[in-house]
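[job 0412] stage=fold_complex status=start
inputs:
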Amino acid sequence: MLNNVALKTLRDRRRSLFWWVVGIFGYFLGIGAFYPIVRDNQAQFEALLETYPDEFLAIMGVGSEENLFDPIGFMQAEAFGWVVPLVFAIYGVVQGARAVAGEEEDGTIDLVMATSLTRFGLVWQKWLALVLAELALGLAVFASLAVDSVLFGVEIPIGNIAAGVLMAVLLGVFFGSLALAVGTGTGLRGLTVGVVTFVAAVTYLLNSLGRLVEILDVLQPISPFYYYDASNPLRYGLDAEHALILGGLAVVFLGIGLLAVRRRDLGVGGIRLSVPTMRKAAG
Amino acid sequence: MTKSYGKARGVLDLDLEVRAGEVFGYLGPNGAGKTTTIRMLVDLIRAQKGEVEVLGGSPRDPAIRRRVGYLPGEVEFYSRMSARDFLTYIGNLRGKGGDALAEQLSERIDLDLSRRIGDLSKGNRQKLGLVQALMHRPELVVLDEPTSGLDPLVQQEVYRLLGELKADGVTVFFSSHVLSEVERIANRVGIIREGRLVEVEELEALRQKAVRTFEVVFEDVPHISEFEELDGVRMADVHGNILHCQVIGSIDELLKAVANHGVRDLVSHGADLEALFLDYYRGEDD
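[job 0412] stage=fold_complex status=done
writing structure:
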């Protein structure tokens, strides 16, 4: 695990990744156990849902036409509509921001980059680690849905699960790559988390409100969350075009990160413009 | 080369050549631009003007960096890793292991590689920094304040290691703000102040420039005119049979003049480089 930056990064993340996976399993087992109750008491739950405003359901990622009582609709409403994309996006933002900016702020970049590692190698291997970690989260979702299917009869075709999980992974990689680009360009972890979280929150709302307010639906396509589940991959399978848009943009962000790091000063506490700023490493 | 951070940071029109096989001491007060220079040597930061050449190539070239050992001024590690894992990782990134030498070095300087880096003392972390800088037998070693903040015992350890590198013909470039350690191990010294190189000199030549103070007690009472006109002698002062004076450079003339009299005692305070450096540090104006 110490052979290169990608494996070393995954090794560093193994503990936190383990707990993210545990959390995902816990959540899916919890709601899976809830499914038989919902299914067997459909009439009461329908009456309850009637009382919910559409706006609320939209924020939860549930379209008004969705059947919430079959396994797919249930999982869409309880997990893939909001928890899953948020978890994958947040994980991506945190890891993407830590990737390069974190090493710069911790000061560990000095010894790492004084070896024969290239800047290109550093950034792209950090990105690879991010993709692999998101895939691990995706596998956890996949595995816990398999358990739900066996234990609680939450049966969803395997291809559709794969499609839903893949879109979640791509969404996480999208935000992770954006954070990697911003962090690599600025060297500031905190700023990166702040900016990219803001972008995620705004685009999430934009997509949810777009489901409700007709005027806003023209804005939905600027939201990555739109590409994540507008095509309802859990029910209808993979929409290749949407997957390519998310994945393609992630690669573009990686490219920006690779370019950004080429000419920068590393570990100097932020992007260096012509304005003098504080500097801790000057001697 | 020039590297500016605005205000009085960075280095200005720095032109410096370090010869293969020499130990070069880079001396200057804190904030003078020592770390800036050193971080340019390993391509962590880049000059705005001018060029850095290391071992005949650019430090941007990974193959060049592989031949360099670097110890940062404030060395930071992954605190959760064990020291041994860290060395393995760095060795892998270099593509040039060095595990055997790392073990050997660590044993010699009494560094326990099985411990978590976060549990190591400052001195032991500095030792680890040195091991990672030396484990791949680099041709050039660049050390930023290698002994700062270390207790005297570990300092001695570092001096010993540097002495061995010197004997092995490894080129060493190290910064310091402590004169005594530069005096001890360097062949040549560069003095930097406010981002400008104010002096580069062989240590010996520098000593020649330094001031010695003399106190001579004569058998008889000499006249001041015998001494005050001599080359290099200044602030001569005779009180009864005692002469006080300072000498810059050669003391030959003074000794010959003194020998014209019977001498009861002679006390010399050796080349006071400290005073010389303080002059440089303060600048030529005052």
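[job 0412] summary: The CA atoms of residues 117 and 125 of chain B lie 7 Å apart.
[job 0412] exit 0
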